[in-house]
From TrEMBL:
Superkingdom of origin organism: Bacteria
Gene3D superfamilies: P-loop containing nucleotide triphosphate hydrolases (3.40.50.300)
CDD domains referenced in this protein's UniProt entry, alphabetically: ABC_Mj1267_LivG_branched
Organism: Ideonella livida
Domain ABC transporter: start-end pairs: 14-255
Name listed for the protein in its UniProt record: ABC transporter ATP-binding protein
GO CC list: plasma membrane
SUPFAM superfamilies per record: P-loop containing nucleoside triphosphate hydrolases
């Protein structure tokens, strides 16, 4: 079959088709299909161990699926490595902090940008002379609202600023699709507000898949919500419909009324 998958809507940025991942006998992700559109923030929620991070790993290419297909911008990428998917426009952030604490905010962004364009490089050229990576890093710093602290050592940032920096590092690789794993974890109210504002802005130019436990935040920013329980999708709909969804209320929100 041809790599090119015909898509009726150009707006579709990323698709999972019947994606599964087994760890021995454990079905961590089972037959998940999901569509992520440009300009959309699509949240994936579910209880601990529901398979959300595993799903992100399958989409980003960090884990191969046991079954199913992943399609990025109309092209099947199931067999592509994570770096190859990143070069094709798929960016991700992690639950754990991946910032280099001893480097400045700007240096962290430049490193992330360099990873994106390394193929086009002469490795003997010092990093700071790579104009494309520099420009991408500066743009990412500005979009993430971190210009004022660009020269600060990352280790001196607040927790919320570090999470913002992670988003900036993701943006520095110039992705069209952002996979964000719990960007609000451990944030106070003010930091949460700042991050939600940032996500709202980023939505315009990106397709965003957000895994998040903060339900208030999810229902405020999400255009669509997919609910996972025990590796499976039990509902995928607009936020208002998810709120009313009986199975979701029983399985996840804790009541059936
Ligand atoms: N590398 C692995 N090897 C074995 N089991 C794994 C592995 N990664 C995840 N699992 C298991 O797969 C299931 C789904 O885990 P996953 O981390 O995807 O859930 P999650 O929804 O992201 O949970 P949380 O909200 O707690 O982060 C869990 O039972 C977990 O223990």
């Amino acid at each position: 079959m041809s790599d090119a998958v015909l898509s009726s809507a150009d707006a579709i940025a990323l698709q999972a088709e019947g994606v599964s991942r087994y760890f021995g006998g454990l079905k961590a992700v089972e037959g998940v299909s999901l569509t992520l559109r440009r300009g959309e923030l699509h949240a994936v929620i579910g209880t601990n161990g529901a398979g959300k991070s595993t799903l992100i790993n399958l989409l980003s290419g960090e884990l191969p699926p046991s079954a199913g297909r992943v399609i990025l911008n109309g092209q099947e990428v199931t067999d592509w490595s994570q770096p190859r998917r990143a070069r094709a426009g798929l960016g991700r952030s992690y639950q754990r902090n991946t910032v280099f604490l001893e480097f400045t905010v700007r240096e962290n962004c430049r490193l992330a940008a360099q990873a994106r364009w390394q193929r086009a490089w002469d490795w003997w050229t010092p990093a700071k002379r790579c104009a494309k990576a520099q420009a991408a890093a500066e743009d990412a710093l500005a979009r993430a609202g971190l210009r004022a602290v660009a020269e600060r050592t990352a280790g001196t940032l607040s927790h919320g600023q570090k999470r913002q920096l992670e988003i900036a590092m993701c943006l520095a690789s110039d992705p069209q699709v952002l996979l964000l794993d719990e960007p609000l974890a451990g944030m106070g109210p003010e930091e949460t507000e700042r991050m939600l504002a940032l996500l709202g802005q980023l939505k315009t130019g990106h397709a965003i898949l957000l895994v998040e436990h903060d339900m208030d935040a999810v229902f405020r920013v999400a255009d669509r919500i997919t609910v996972m329980v025990n590796g499976r999708v039990i509902a995928s709909d607009l936020p208002d419909a998810i709120r009313q969804h009986r199975e979701v209320r029983i399985a996840y929100l804790g009541d059936g009324h």
